[in-house]
Amino acid sequence: MILTVDDLTVAYGSVVAVRNLSFGAEEGKILSLLGPNGAGKTTTLMAIMGMIPIASGAVRLQSRSIAGARTEDTVRAGMTLTPEGRQIFASLTVAENLILGEAGLSGRDGGRWTRKEVLRTFPILSERLNQDAGTLSGGEQQQLAIARSLLSNPKVLLLDEPSLGLAPQVVDLIFSLIVQLCEHGITVVLVEQNAMRSLEIAHHSVVLSAGRKVFDGSASALRSSDDLMKAYLAIQPAGRSPETQGG
């Protein structure tokens, strides 16, 4: 496993948000981290990135302990996060946002993801280089956010709700790009509210409920089981109505 999380517990004061969570992500694979709102998915990503403190547990990237490391050190070690809401710099141009993606990484060895390669992967950004990022469409902003993350040449990319608020055809594009990243050897940990779409591209899935792990197995096994989908994700089998509806 390129990323290993062991017995992770995260608390906000006296409130435990994630409890005794363990999972692993394989190199070059997509792991889908699923669960209802408030399950602890985003908290998990932020904790393993070093953005919030952990109460206990271990986080290892390529067998190196990164629990408690500063976020910038975690990025240097090879893992980065594209957060929910994209968090681009709206008043800066696309080019300036990409330059910021390279900031502070001068001491790292070069990698595949140069600005030239990023613009080849996200060609729409080449057409928008001098445009303020805040004037881009939602899908273009999401591509910019991912492109900026790639400039740190991560081995593991954490994606938090990349399809949120996007039109269906744009979601198709974003998910296609995620698959491409996996084909280039990047490990992706994907938090996504669209569970079915996430499971279509994922190799493995971990489901959280109230901060605890309730499922850890292949994405195909979860997707193909009506009982599991209903029990863990409240997704009804195709062609059936929810039990709370009808006579």
Automatic annotation (TrEMBL):
It comes from the Eukaryota. The keyword Isomerase does not apply. Residues 3-235 form the ABC transporter domain. One of its GO terms (biological process) is L-amino acid transport. Pfam families: ABC_tran (PF00005). Keywords: Amino-acid transport, ATP-binding, Nucleotide-binding, Transport. One of its GO terms (molecular function) is ATP hydrolysis activity. The keyword Chaperone does not apply. CDD domains: ABC_TM1139_LivF_branched (cd03224). SUPFAM superfamilies: P-loop containing nucleoside triphosphate hydrolases (SSF52540). Belongs to the ABC transporter superfamily. PANTHER family: HIGH-AFFINITY BRANCHED-CHAIN AMINO ACID TRANSPORT ATP-BINDING PROTEIN LIVF (PTHR43820). This is High-affinity branched-chain amino acid transport ATP-binding protein LivF. It comes from Geodia barretti.
